[in-house]
Amino acid sequence: xxxxxxxxxxxxxxxxxxxxxxxxxxxxxxxxxxxxxxxxxxxxxxxxxxxxxxxxxxxxxxxxxxxxxxxxxxxxxxxxxxxxxxxxxxxxxxxxxxxxxxxxxxxxxxxxxxxxxxxxxxxxxxxxxxxxxxxxxxxxxxxxxxxxxxxxxxxxxxxxxxxxxxxxxxxxxxxxxxxxxxxxxxxxxxxxxxxxxxxxxxxxxxxxxxxxxxxxxxxxxxxxxxxxxxxxxxxxxxxxxxxxxxxxxxxxxxxxxxxxxxxxxxxxxxxxxxxxxxxxxxxxxxxxxxxxxxxxxxxxxxxxxxxxxxxxxxxxxxxxxxxxxxxxxxxxxxxxxxxxxxxxxxxxxxxxxxxxxxxxxxxxxxxxxxxxxxxxxxxxxxxxxxxxxxxxxxxxxxxxxxxxxx
Length: 406
What we know:
Blueprint: E1 6-8, H1 16-24, E2 27-30, E3 43-55, E4 58-64, E5 80-87, E6 90-97, E7 113-119, H2 125-132, E8 139-143, E9 160-166, H3 170-183, E10 188-195, H4 204-213, E11 218-224, H5 240-251, E12 258-263, H6 265-277, E13 285-291, E14 314-321, E15 324-331, H7 338-343, E16 362-367, E17 369-372, H8 380-384, E18 387-389, E19 393-395, E20 399-403
Parallel strand pairs: 9-10, 9-12, 10-11, 12-13, 14-20
Antiparallel strand pairs: 1-13, 2-17, 3-4, 3-8, 4-7, 5-6, 5-8, 14-15, 16-18, 16-20, 17-19
C-alpha cells in the first residue's frame, strides 16, 4: 500500500537508464499499440467489518463485500485499492495494498472481505483519522482492486520467489508470499523484512504463522536497524555492503526466479542497482515504492481552477469515460495536466494519488502526444501500447484524445 502511502512504481524491469529518464526528466509518449483489456476501477461504498491494531502506529482495516459487488473485488496478491472519504469538507484519497492472500475468504463468486494495513504517517490526515477514528460499522468508499505488482510466473512449481520489504512495504509481500506458497507444494519464498525495532514489525504473528505453516519453504529474515539481534548481519541499516552479504549468504540470487521489492525509494533503488550489478535480469525484478509526506500533497478533488482568457492559446483535450466523450480547452500557459482539465468538467474521472504513483488515472492516448512528468506505475509494455498517467500528462500537441475505458 501500504502506508498512507502514495503508491509508487511498479513493473518489472524498467532499465536503470529508462527509469532515470522517466523519473528525472520528461517522458514523451505517442499513440500506438492495440486496445487494452484492463477494466476501469470504480468506487463502491463498503462497510468496515473490523479495525485491528497491528502496532502502536498501524491498523488492519477489513471491509465486508456485499454479494452484489463481489465480482468487482476479485484481486491478485500484490494489488491495491484506493480509499476515499471527506474530512473537514475536503475529499481525501489514499491507496493501500491488500494484505491477505487473494483467495482468503473467497468463495467462487469473489471475496467476502478484503483487508488493508494503514500505518500512521506523521502529520498524515487520512492515516491519523483511520487509526484514531475509524470503527467497525463505518462506511467508506473503496475502489475495486488494481495494480500490476503481481507475479508473472506461469508455473510456480519449483519456483523460488524473493522479496525485500521495509516497514509497511510488507503488506503486498505478505499476500504474495502466502499465495505463492499455497499455490504450489514445491515453491519457495525468501523474505527479507527490515524495520527500526521489533515493536515496528507489522503482521509479526501472521508472518510467524506463515513460517510455521511452511517451515522448509519460507525463509524469513528480520533485519532491525536500531535493535541488536543475535546475528550481526541482521542488525543495522541495510546499506550496500550489508545488502550484498544478505543476498550472498541468505537469498542466493542465482536460484531466484522472480524478485519483489517494496519500500521507500532509497532502499528499493539500492536493491535494484545491486541486483543489476550482480547480473540479475531487470525483467525478473518487480518493484513498488511508497513515500509519506502526506501534508505536502495536492488534493485535486475537483480540478485546479483554470481561466481561459480570450484569444489565449489553448490545447484541446478530449476524453472518453464510461462511454461518454467530452472536451475541455486547457491554456498552454497553465501547463495543466489532462487529469486536472478533465476534473473541471467530470468530477468522477478516476484518480487516487495524483502523483504518478498508483496508476488509477491510467488512460490510453488515442491522438496527439504528451509529456509525463513522473511515471512509477506504468510498465514498459503499457507505455509502448500508448497508455499514460493522466495526472502527470501534459499535452504537447493542439489536440489530445484519451480513453479511460480501454
